[in-house]
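Changelog note: in this version the structure field was regenerated for every chain. One regenerated record is shown below for reference.
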Amino acid sequence: MRTFRTTLLTAAAAGLAVTALAQVPAAAAPAPAPPKFLSAGQLPASLTPWTAGPVRQGVPSEGSVCTAGIAPAAGTRHRDFRTELDTGARQTITVAATTAQAKALAAELRSALETCLDRLKEQDPGLEGEAFYQGRVDIEEGAHVYSIDTSYPEVGSTDIGLYSVGRDGRAVTVVEWGQLGDLDGAPLEGFKNTTRTAVAKLY
């Protein structure tokens, strides 16, 4: 009888131990590190040094006229850059919930860049310009580069903008660069290198 009782007590203790272990919550997996942004030194070469602003949450409140309203505020951060001359840049990163959503977002952003000049001309009939697709950058899931050259003949002002959209998994980044002048004076190859670095740094 004593042996039987001891066996029962041992089995009961083991059952309690299993129950206790089952009630202990599993340790949560550490959250993945957020994608990294470009540094000032990774922007295309300029006559004066680049200065990097802070990384801010959400979509930019102004600027980014070609892609405004496309990326969701949730999961998006951005960073502005400037020089002492009339040159500025911006990087925006959005982390989508799924890879499929990131792929769709990248496609929508590309479409917005491809139609940007036509939309700007509709809003401002006095605007003239040329837009070109400048090719693919082979990095991760790929990046695509565009240029938009605009001018106001009445006042003689010209502006050139370089843009890229790249993706690595669930992360999508847009890099924008702009200054007074035209495409001939823009650092296109340097911008492509910046785009390559921007996508490579995401993860």
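Spot check on this record: Residues 1-22 have pLDDT under 50 and may be disordered. The beta strands are 51-52, 56-57, 76-82, 87-95, 128-137, 143-152, 157-168, 171-180.
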